Amino acid sequence: MSHSASPPLPADGLPELRYHVDGMDCASCVGKVERAVTRLPGAREVRSSFGTQTLSLQLDETQTPRGVLEGHLRALGYTLRELNEVGAVGAEASEDAEPHAHGHDHSQTDDRPWYAGAQGRLVLLTGALLAVAWGLSWAFPAVAVWGYVAATLVGVWPLARRALASARLGEPFSINTLVTLAALGALLIGEAAEGAVVVFFFAVGELLEGVAAGHTRAGIRALGALTPRTALLVGAGGGVREVGADTLRPGQLVQVRPGARVPADGVIETGTSALDDSPVTGESMPVSRGPGEAVYAGSVNGGGVLEVRVTRGAKDNTIARIIRLVEEAEGSRAPTARLIDRFSRVYTPGVVAVSAAVAVLPPLLTGAEWSAWLYRGLALLLIGCPCALVLSVPAAITSAVAAGTRRGLLVKGGAALETLARVRTVAFDKTGTLTVGAPGVTAVRPLARRDGAGLNETDVLRLAAAVEAGSDHPLARAVVRRAEELGLSIPAARDGKAQAGRGVSAAVEGRTLHVVSPRFAVGEGWLTHGGQVEAQALERVGHTVVVLAEPRPDGALALVALRDEARADAGEAVARLRALGLRPVMLTGDNARTAHAVAAPLGLEVRAELLPEDKLRLVREFQAGGGGVAMIGDGINDAPALAAADVGVAMGGGTDVALETADAALLHGRVTGVADLVALSRAALGNIRQNIAFALGLKAIFLVTTLLGVTNLWMAILADTGATALVTANALRLLRWRGSGQPSALSRPQDGMW
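The structure corresponding to this sequence follows.
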């Protein structure tokens, strides 16, 4: 294998290698690869994913050369392509990979038809030999037997090679071993036809599994294709030239024309447009953005020409980080998956032992017919293949993670997904989570003047915005933003001054105006008793009030009320969580008056005036009260509570913190995404339970029929292949998950889940 440029060195000095492993797309494959690599001296931090067919590790090549590592994996039947640091293919694989040690050659690339890969050709060849032998059996039975033998040997040869390779690498009881023993045993007892059918059905089953695995990877591949290959780079003189998008560096300026995709994460320098962020965040409606606002790689520019200052290179943009996190998600394996993996390590050797006992003990102890019991022992080998059982959990998890990612719900692995299904309390931070995170103008109250020359609401906003235009205070920005939203013409202001803790002043249209706090206005004698009463009434319901005034007795012109309002979908989110049987509660450090003003319309339980340690204490109290706790925050504040919760969910549209700090993230920033996450996790857990029932149920049925002498070998293989097909098809249903405002049968609370 040729190698790309030297990989980067982590802090400990060991190079990190990344490979695309063709054929590694089932849970058993992942376990086999990880165990084979972990046994090598000098191999550390081994991580693999069948969802993306990637393997990464740190390797001390003074103990194990890279060629030895690659040779071991090729001996197991995998074909490798080395990935460079940004994920591009560094060394192409050979076109064909042989079936590997699990018997699964899903090695055809996702862009090729099923019959173009090695496994597809194996299916066609063994199927053709089987058909020819069956045709000959009508006229030339003696010749037909050799056709069945040929079909069996052709089909079992790659399996036997991989079984021997697995045994040499410390895996003597691979699934390949079971099928090889059963097929060769069928030849030895004169059942060549059934041996041929067994290897053919097994090959077909694994081909179907590979095709299904390709479907689960399609969403991730499509996500990777969102970033355009080229970008229009703006030069120092203003000229534009086309460059590769992967060559962009932070600080460069790119032009994005209408209808084009944004080539990199960045900030708009000039231009305003509506951007379609749905490929990245799942947000269905275009979002209007202008200068100073962030944009994501892969978003579609729907309107005007934009110039965007690049803030992240290709390997660090939002889409690349999402893909990387999805790849790494399988490292956080679901508890059920870990349990099944441990069980299968004991189960497979046990199957061999039981099959041997069934084949040998009845003839030895009771004088029963050897051929009949040997036949039943071989059937048990096939029935015992744990493919479907091992696949039942990761297939569902991978499909659920892919479905969620396409809808802006990023879940970092099976452990978080399974835990989400069991939460009973959902704790929300307030600011930036239940609320929009920035104050907005909620009311404008002109005050009566003794001379009758009062202002209307439009004039109040126009003049207040003029005074506030030079200030960077959040309240000032809110007033200016509201005036702009209404399309008001904001007059010019002169001699603007800011007085710390008091407010701002400026000369506007020939008069000196102040925007100050009510307390300061009272102290200056500007606010009448009636105005004070009205301001206090607004403050009691959680508003912050500022006064527009002239510097003279009773000079207050109007009150402007502002508040960080609840998100538009907060009420729906709380209602949906209650419908799911969950207890939503707000935990906030804000004052009780403001907290209750936000929570009351939502019907939300609230705990206010909390320090970070208070939130941590309450999370632990909720956990002690029974059931898991999900903490929803902005990923920046409340770190202790987010860490202590069973699942931490970060709000944010693809920010660093939202993607990297919590167990899950809502990329679209909608609070209803919390209910979607819970519903998705419960659907996934229900799917897992169904898969395990399919896998074990079919095996139990065929076990009984085999011991009774009813099941023949080709039917026995259906206990594995059929169950694998059922489990895979059932898991793929999760890819069609859309989310719903109504809880389904799979999203209701389920006690006693294992």
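Residues 1-11, 85-109, 741-754 have pLDDT under 50 and may be disordered.
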